[in-house]
Amino acid sequence: MQTKTQTVLPKMMTGTVHTQYVRCGKQNCKCARGELHGAYFYHFVRVGGKLRKRYLKAVEVEKIKESCALRQQQEKRRRDDSKTVWNLIRQIRENLRETDALYGFRGEK
Ligand SMILES: [Zn+2]
Questions:
Q1: Does residue 1 surpass a pLDDT of 60?
Q2: Which domain holds residue 91?
Q3: How far is the CA of 49 from the centre of ligand 1 (A)?
Q4: Which of 49, 61, 68, 105 is most exposed, with minimal Cβ within 10 Å?
Q5: Strands of the 37-47 sheet, one edge to the other
Q6: Ligand 1 centre from 1 Cα, in Å?
């Protein structure tokens, strides 16, 4: 059942989604003999240098995976953009040096 109380998740999120197998802690459970429960989905986020994880309900998994992927794409694009800008700056500096050399200007030293 879809309810109006369903959490609205942000379109982009930091972090990654991973699965983990877990022990429930009960001594007579199969997981105590190494047959772990899972896999369960968790959202891992680095907060102030510490890795935090949050258990994801099945209904959240796809949405949060998508949000994390979008965010990762955005960050990659930003890195690429800044690379482009630095390349431009380097090129401009080179051009200026060449111009200086051509006209015999001396750099301020
Ligand atoms: Zn168990």
A1: no
A2: 16-103
A3: 31
A4: 49
A5: 16-22, 37-47, 50-55
A6: 29
**Ligand 1 mean position to 15 CA, how many Å?**
28
Nearest to 40 by CA among 25, 57, 27: 57
Judge whether 62 lies within some domain: yes
Measured CA to CA in angstroms, residue 11 lies from 65, 66, 67, 74 at distances of: 10, 8, 5, 12
What's the gap in Å between 54 CA and the centre of ligand 1?
19
58: in domain: yes
Domain count, the chain: 1
Instruction: Give residue 107 CA to ligand 1 midpoint distance, Å.
Output: 72
Task: State in Å: Cα 33 to ligand 1 middle.
Answer: 9
Is residue 11 in some structural domain?
no
For residue 10, being part of any structural domain is answered with no
